Amino acid sequence: MNLQITTPVEAENTPDIPERAVLSPFSKMLFGDARRVPLKPGDADMVVTSPPYWLKRDYGVEGQIGQETTANAFVQSLLDCMENWKSVIPKWGSVFINIGDTYHRGSLANTPGRLEIAAQDAGWTVRNRIIWVKDAGMPDPAKDRLKSRHEYIIHFTPQRRDYYYDQFGYAEKYGNGTGPSDVWQIGLRRDTSNHLAPYPVELVDRLLSLACPEQVCTCCGKPRERIVKRTNKLDGGRPQAKRAMELAEEHGLTPAHIMAIQATGISDAGKAMRVQTGTGRNSASVKVLAAEAKAVLGGYFREFTFAKRETIGWTDCGCKAPFRPGIVLDPFMGTGTTLRAAGDIGRSAIGIDLAQKSESKRPTRSGGTR
Ligand SMILES: C[S@@+](CC[C@H](N)C(=O)[O-])C[C@H]1O[C@@H](n2cnc3c(N)ncnc32)[C@H](O)[C@@H]1O
Predict the structure, then answer these.
(1) Measured CA distances, 36 to 40, 44, 78, 156, 332 (Å)
(2) Looking at the domain assignment, is residue 313 inside a domain?
């Protein structure tokens, strides 16, 4: 997103930047139809939800989605929902839909694919198709095909770019040191009580970490974004990095030398000239520093181009109003997993469901995992 950074708030607050109040998170459960949520624009920031899958569980409630006679009619129901949610979330918001496919007359109905195409045609951007790999699933007696052990989480955005996204924060939590991927291995929950279709808290936590801001301004509605800076620290766990740091210390390299290495990049020739920011475009003094560093580090020079990044603060729109936590909406709330996951990390949540809490949600017809 392209937010104006007026007063980056550093970890240590400077005396001239007064601390802005931060409101407490809330959690709300409402009764209603996901196609017509009882909310107004700005009531939620993003959506994380798992609708009934086509022709799977019959929730026995008037107006339910999932029992349409054709796959296309089912997809149209979901599109109607998305159109409605679009009027509630801001332009920088996201919609994540957890969906699995259905075997119908021997063939996969391809509902996830149909939804992606229909949503694209309706103007949505499809940013990711995350594959949720499950370690187990419902018993499946078929002997002429493999058991299905995955579902999808499709990431839709109202606009092509400039949506709120905290890949850095997500990677710190789930990235395991590498670029985070779109394949997620998450076990199914065992504590399913009388409701057999909850999704795992971790799945929601991942999505909230990615796209539900920690803080949003109550005046202008802008989310605060992480300000990340490359440091001169290396991962001391790697022998090469350890040796690089020893050499740098032995030879008295300064932070300016390290910054010069990072500005120069791995190489100053060939493809690197085209793909690395700063390569070949540095000032003479930076080139001198980089050359000095290279002379003492030799092949270890490149280690400093992998230096760790750190959060040094958050953007601040400059308004005087308090911040509030980001708000996630789950219009197919079910047992309320989304609300619990949001509460765990200090986000607000609104859950909506057609079924009243007191009603039994036991399926009247069993057809699979949803
Ligand atoms: C797959 S479950 C959601 C499970 C939930 N993610 C959880 O972890 O418990 C789908 C839910 O959608 C609800 N539902 C079905 N049609 C609906 C509609 N038109 N509007 C709102 N909720 C609906 C059902 O009552 C059911 O609770």
Answers:
(1) 11, 14, 12, 19, 12
(2) no
C-alpha neighbours within 13 Å on the C-beta side of residue 83: 13
pLDDT at 127: 98
Q: How far is the CA of 50 from the centre of ligand 1 (A)?
A: 7
Supply the range of the domain harboring residue 258. 232-307
Q: Are residues 135 and 257 in the same domain?
A: no
Domain-located, residue 370: no
Render pLDDT for 213-260 as a digit per residue (tens, 0 to 9): 999 999 999 999 999 998 878 877 788 888 988 999 999 999 888 888
What is the distance in A from the centroid of ligand 1 to the CA of 49? 8
Check whether residue 332 and residue 296 sit in a common domain. no
Shared domain for 180 and 148, answered yes or no, is yes
The predicted pLDDT at position 9 comes to: 40
Residues 289 and 251 sit within 8 Å (Cβ to Cβ):
no
pLDDT tier, 281 (very low <50, low <70, confident <90, very high otherwise): low
Residues 307, 265: contact at Cβ < 8 Å? no
Going by pLDDT thresholds of 50, 70 and 90, the confidence category of residue 338 is very high
Residues 297 and 328 placed together within one structural domain of the fold = no
Give the start-end residues of each E strand in the chain: 9-10, 27-31, 46-49, 95-99, 103-104, 107-108, 125-133, 150-157, 183-185, 216-217, 226-230, 309-314, 323-324, 327-330, 348-353
Query: Which ligand 1 atom is the nearest neighbour of the CA of 61?
Result: 25
Q: With a 6 A CB cut-off, is 151 part of the ligand 1 pocket?
A: no
* Whether residue 254 is found in the same domain as residue 218: no
The verdict on 194 and 165 lying in the same domain is yes
* 268 and 119 assigned to the same domain: no
Please give the tally of structural domains in the chain.
Answer: 2
Distance CA 332, CA 55 (A): 16
